[in-house]
UniProtKB/TrEMBL annotation:
It is an enzyme of class 2 (transferase). GO terms for cellular component: cytosol. Residues 102-187 form the GHMP kinase N-terminal domain. Residues 292-370 form the GHMP kinase C-terminal domain. PROSITE patterns: GALACTOKINASE (PS00106), GHMP_KINASES_ATP (PS00627). PANTHER family: GALACTOKINASE-RELATED, MEVALONATE KINASE/GALACTOKINASE. Keywords: ATP-binding, Carbohydrate metabolism, Cytoplasm, Galactose metabolism, Kinase, Magnesium, Metal-binding, Nucleotide-binding, Transferase. This is Galactokinase. It comes from the Bacteria. It comes from Nocardiopsis aegyptia. Its EC number is 2.7.1.6. InterPro entries: Galactokinase, Galactokinase_CS, GalKase_N, GHMP_kinase_C_dom, GHMP_kinase_C_sf, GHMP_kinase_N_dom, GHMP_knse_ATP-bd_CS, Mevalonate/galactokinase. Gene3D superfamilies: 3.30.230.10, GHMP kinase, C-terminal domain (3.30.70.890).
Length: 392
């Protein structure tokens, strides 16, 4: 059997520059790269002011760009046939359909922050499979913010770029996501997981060297069709905000593990009790995982991954049969822990496995999928890569 679980690379900056030249008949001023991410643990905690622990992936999105002086933005993607063109002055929230909403949202966010955008030609190329929970959208908005800012004489700090990219998704695309994906893409470093307190925005680079421990992180793309993602995400977020209001706290982050039982008693219905229990226990699991990583005891984090999955499945109710089947098959095949990663309702599953066991673990998922008639899953080994940067 051919190895299917190898490491994917970032797109080539020169190929992206070539595509730009072919499309626009001139030189790009630069090429910027922003990676996708895997969240190790801490799901749906970021919009509750909680804790997250993502790594950046080698999979990344490249954007070649050059300023225009005529107030026009032209956008192309090597992954999308649709070319987009508009006047920057006409960009208003939720007016741009399809993929172009993300990069135009990035321009809109920059303009809202006082960066005058004269116009832009942009060519995008990506190795991040989109819509699978690896955060291609944040890579697209982050890379666009960087390209537009740098070609217009601005140089926002990485955390500022993340905030602008989040603003693009929240305020322009209409997706009420938290700050994790953009922060991972901008702030993560090779060989580390990014521990982030999404309230204070404080971050810590936690060493994450699996190979040194004889371990590997297998990512399984379940290929489950996304079902009602955006509506369900917004609905989860609303129910958390409502629960925080009932409990009289600024955010669910303020409910501690010790205070959980009292909080559950104070809530009016089972659904909100389940949602709150997920968020509170998930925050505690992130802190515990960080403690294990700091102590070099990564293997034991596997049990926390598995507990996180059960919480997403039973309390947050954001998993689907393909995802649960993958987790069960991975654990049965000997994984130290497995969980869905990302917003849910499909997407990817991660498993902490013995280095070298990736192929057999993926084969176990394949077999379980065949039995249930699910589409063939894909897999790769994730290594913590560097965050966004200018490459040309
Ligand atoms: P995720 O961020 O997990 O990949 P999202 O649904 O948030 O999933 O974002 C996916 C969307 O981002 C795509 O539907 C598309 O609009 C846009 N996108 C991502 N990558 C590209 C790309 N290379 N070219 C064009 N659009 C892209
Ligand atoms: Mg996204």
């Amino acid at each position: 059997m051919t190895a299917t679980t190898g490491v994917t690379a970032a797109p080539s900056a020169s190929a992206c520059a070539d595509a730009f030249r072919d499309a626009y008949g001139r030189e790009p001023e630069g090429v910027w790269i922003a990676p996708g991410r895997i969240n190790l643990i801490g799901e749906h905690t970021d919009y509750n002011d909680g804790f997250v622990l993502p790594i950046a992936l080698p999979h990344a999105l490249a954007a070649a760009g050059a300023r225009r002086a005529d107030g026009v933005v032209r956008l192309r993607s090597r992954q999308s046939g649709e070319e987009f063109s508009a006047r920057v002055a006409d960009l208003v929230p939720e007016s741009v359909p399809g993929w172009a909403a993300y990069p135009t949202g990035a321009l809109w966010a920059l303009a809202g922050a006082g960066v005058r955008i004269d116009g832009l030609d942009l060519m995008v190329d990506s190795t991040i499979p989109s819509g699978t929970g690896l955060s291609s959208s944040a890579a697209l908005t982050c890379a666009t913010v960087l390209a537009a800012a740098h070609t217009h004489g601005a140089d926002p700090a990485p955390a500022r770029v993340a905030a602008l990219a989040q603003r693009a998704e929240n305020g322009f695309v209409g997706m009420p996501c938290g700050i994790m994906d953009q922060s991972a893409s901008m702030l993560a470093t090779a060989g580390h997981a990014l521990f982030m307190d999404t309230r204070s925005l404080e971050t810590e680079q936690v060493p994450f060297d699996l190979a040194a421990r004889g371990l590997a992180l297998l990512v399984v793309d379940t290929r489950a069709p996304h079902r009602h993602v955006d509506g369900a995400y917004a609905e989860r977020r609303r129910s958390c905000e409502e629960a925080a209001r009932v409990l009289g706290v600024p955010a669910l982050r303020d409910v501690t593990a010790e205070g959980l039982a009292a909080a559950l008693d104070a809530l009016p219905d089972d659904v909100s009790r389940h949602r709150v229990r997920h968020v509170v226990t998930e925050n505690a699991r992130v802190l515990e995982t960080v403690g294990l990583l700091r102590a070099g005891d990564v293997r034991r984090a596997g049990a926390l991954f598995t507990a996180s999955h059960a919480s997403m499945r039973d309390d947050y109710e954001i998993t689907v049969p393909e995802v649960d089947t993958a987790v069960d098959a991975l654990l049965a095949a000997g994984a130290h822990g497995a969980r869905m990663t990302g917003g849910g309702f499909g997407g990817c599953v991660i498993a902490l496995v013995a280095d070298g066991a990736q192929e057999s673990c993926l084969a176990a998922v394949r077999a379980a999928y065949r039995e249930r008639g699910f589409a063939e899953p894909a897999g790769f080994t994730a290594v913590p890569a560097e965050g966004a940067r200018r490459v040309r």
